[in-house]
Design brief:
Blueprint lengths: L3 E8 L6 H17 L4 E3 L27 H13 L2 E11 L2 E9 L5 E6 L5 E2 L2 E2 L14 E3 L2 E5 L8 H9 L4 E5 L3 E2 L1 H26 L2 E5 L2 E6 L2 E6 L3 E3 L5 E4 L6 E8 L1 H9 L22
Parallel strand pairs: 1-2, 2-3, 9-10, 10-12
Antiparallel strand pairs: 1-17, 3-4, 4-5, 6-7, 8-9, 11-14, 12-15, 13-14, 15-16
Length: 293
């Protein structure tokens, strides 16, 4: 297993034109590969504007089978470039059953892992429970030519249990395809605090698990009816000590390519042995709901 690799995060401004989004993603993946990236991750649900801003049955038309046309296209691309791709799709399991799904494709063009988003939000402008069932495939780790990796999705990044269980399965880096931003009316009052909280929680996952964390987000305003979201970008990579080692501008599409040394995972876990000192016998109540439920 390799001890060093390069990771590429693709930060995109998503349009209403699906084909344009695909072409833009492919172009950026090619550029990331030219810069040496071996594991490349796209933002959450990158094929379309973030349709979960509203509850509308017509949006189910965006769902697709996995494997299917889109995965076939990106499997071919991964094989041509000899890279690992992580892509986020609106999965149609069958009529009436849909998931927010992340697919990992290896350098041979084969789907080697599929993760279905476990934590599904329902907040103003983020009506995902209308569209997605909670994931049923558990937390994932997959061995690739370029390292052991796990993938979670957006809202999952706020839950310490998700990153801990992914790390315990063997992952040395967790990828978070993301679609998160500000409600424009709230930005002036709460914007800096919300963004800081988002970065802080991911730094905490890196520290607590001695693991690299990589989150890639979209950028730009997206509007549906009277619903607006300004996606805040800030795609970033954090090392096992919680240091932000690379970060993109918040307002622009871009490519982040960053060298990763997996020796830092072992070093961090030896010096901060949080995994060693866990008291699983004392955590039984974690499997229960709160006393007020």
């Amino acid at each position: 297993m390799t001890k060093k690799t390069k990771v590429g995060l693709i930060q995109l401004k998503i349009s209403k034109n699906r084909e344009l989004n695909i072409n833009k993603a492919i172009k950026q993946i090619n550029e990331a590969a030219k810069k040496g990236a071996k594991i490349i991750c796209l933002p959450e649900l990158f094929l379309n504007e973030y349709f979960c801003k509203v509850e509308n049955h017509s949006n189910f038309k965006y769902a697709e089978k996995i494997p299917g046309k889109t995965t076939h296209m990106f499997c071919n691309l991964a094989r041509q470039l000899k890279v690992v791709l992580i892509i986020s799709l609106f999965e149609k399991k069958m009529s009436g059953i849909y998931y927010n799904t992340c697919v990992t494709i290896n350098e041979k063009g084969k789907i080697i892992s599929k993760y279905r988003k476990i934590h599904i939000p329902d907040d103003p402008g983020y009506y995902e429970k209308f569209y997605f069932r909670p994931g049923n495939l558990g937390f994932k780790n997959v061995k690739t030519k370029y390292g052991e990796i796990g993938s979670l999705i957006c809202w999952d990044q706020w839950f310490p249990e998700a990153s801990r269980l992914t790390a315990l399965k063997g992952s040395e880096i967790i990828f978070y395809p993301t679609a998160i931003g500000w409600h424009p009316k709230e930005k002036r009052k709460f914007g800096s605090t919300q963004l800081d909280s988002w970065v802080t929680i991911q730094r905490s996952h890196a520290i607590a698990n001695g693991i690299f964390v990589a989150a890639t987000n979209r950028v730009g305003y997206e509007k549906k009816g009277n619903r607006k979201i300004e996606f805040w970008g800030n795609s970033l990579i954090i090392d096992p000590n919680g240091k932000v080692i690379s970060r993109l501008n918040s307002k622009k599409s871009g490519i982040l390519v960053c060298a990763i040394d997996f020796k830092k995972v072992e070093n961090a876990r030896q010096h901060w042995p949080f995994l060693r000192d866990r008291r699983v016998d004392a955590y039984r109540d974690l499997a229960k709901n709160s006393k007020n439920d």
